[in-house]
Write a structure and sequence with these properties.
Rossmann fold; YaeB-like fold; alpha/beta; 13 strands; Arc Repressor Mutant, subunit A; 3 domains
Length: 379
């Protein structure tokens, strides 16, 4: 698919195609049901999708009247060889629409296409929409933008379909990334475009959070923890960070916008991780370690986060590596930093770690030749 793709269109999906194109007696049972019920209704969804795509192929098809998504894609000017990504709600009706639109693009327009269910993106539960839906939407778009960079593809963000509450986030992502946002407003025939005009944000407020930003970007923490980590009282912190933090029921996290800015501009500044052969062997030998440690490796790319979780009281005549310990957990990571790379030398759970400290050798010199690329060499 790679070199043949000229245009990549990332579209949110609504249910406008339900109006005139589905057997509503059959389809209405799907409306609003969560995606978790997919297995129970998969046969019905596949049948409705096949019937609708078949009609598009063998009967008169007007993309302008069929749905908001086909109308906008038609106005954008998609063509054979382009790629369309459809982001659906976390509902069965959203999935059905995503499948139908993917089928039309592939079989009618000879495009590459796929649909992606955005976890938490629904309107039944406002808290879930705010806490999960928007964040997962941002993550999915960022994943697609990383996979199809605007330097190599003609990328377009198209929020014509779907919930109107997400339009500001997509618009802002377009501004941040320097990617055009195109949409058609309701029954208009005019394709409106927000031109490429990247804007610069003052990131100083997020930077003022220091290493705490990494914790807030991945989860909620209690306000007591937040105050202790920041060394200030809650009222002061609420006033200082009110534009970038979300406080609720004794917990705090980054707002969706602040999280986007952090992930794109600050977190991405992190250093490259290199794993020793010893570490890779352990991850293969103990599969249950993989998820635990890989998420920590990713966080360790951030030098501020590493500094906040350094545990160097273990250093001795047998230990000169830095030790990373994230709170009261069993995982311990020994590493050193050289240039723009973090070299992960060895990993342990708590009991093995205690034994190694007492009898082992955790010296940098032991691991210098344990990496595929010699330490300090740029490739």
């Amino acid at each position: 698919m790679g070199d043949e793709i000229v245009r990549v269109t990332i579209s949110t999906v609504g249910v406008s195609l339900w109006r005139n194109n589905l057997d509503l007696e059959k389809a209405k049972i799907l409306m609003g049901r969560p995606a978790s019920e997919m297995e129970q209704f998969s046969s019905l969804i596949n049948q409705l999708c096949d019937d609708t795509v078949r009609k598009v192929l063998y009967e008169d098809f007007d993309p302008v009247t069929f749905s908001a998504e086909t109308h906008s894609l038609y106005r954008i000017g998609v063509s054979e060889g382009d790629y369309a990504a459809f982001l659906t709600s976390d509902t069965l009706d959203g999935i059905l629409c995503g499948k139908i639109l993917t089928g039309i693009c592939k079989r009618k327009w000879k495009m590459e296409a796929s649909y992606h269910v955005v976890k938490g993106l629904q309107v039944r539960d406002a808290d879930m929409f705010r806490k999960e839906g928007v964040n997962h939407l941002v993550d999915q778009i960022m994943h697609l933008l990383d996979k199809y960079p605007s330097s190599s593809y003609k990328v377009v963000l198209n929020p014509t379909g779907g919930y109107k509450a997400i339009v500001p986030y997509i618009t802002l992502m377009g501004l941040i990334e320097g990617i055009p946002v195109k949409y058609i407003y309701e029954q208009s025939k005019v394709l409106m475009e927000l031109p490429v005009a990247p804007i610069s944000f003052n990131l100083d407020t997020i930077k003022d959070l220091g290493p705490v930003a990494a914790d807030l970007a991945t989860d909620y923490i209690t306000t007591d923890q937040f105050c202790e980590m920041m060394g200030a009282n809650l009222y002061y912190l609420q006033q200082k960070f009110r534009d970038i933090l979300y406080f609720e029921d004794g917990h705090v996290t980054l707002s969706a916008l602040a999280r986007l800015l952090y992930l794109r501009f600050l977190y991405k500044e992190g250093q490259q991780i290199e794993l020793s052969k010893t570490v890779r062997k352990k991850l293969q030998q103990f599969p249950t370690w993989k998820n635990k440690f890989e998420s920590l490796f990713e966080k360790m790319r951030n030098p501020l986060y590493r500094q906040a979780h350094i545990h160097n009281e273990v250093q001795s005549s047998r230990v000169d590596l830095d030790c990373f310990k994230q709170g009261n957990v069993a995982e311990r990571i020994f590493y050193f930093v050289e240039g723009e790379k973090v070299y992960i030398c060895d990993i342990f759970l708590h009991d093995e770690y205690d034994r190694e400290l007492n009898t082992g050798n955790l010296m940098k010199s032991k691991y210098m030749n344990d990496f595929d690329v010699p330490v300090g060499i740029k490739v």
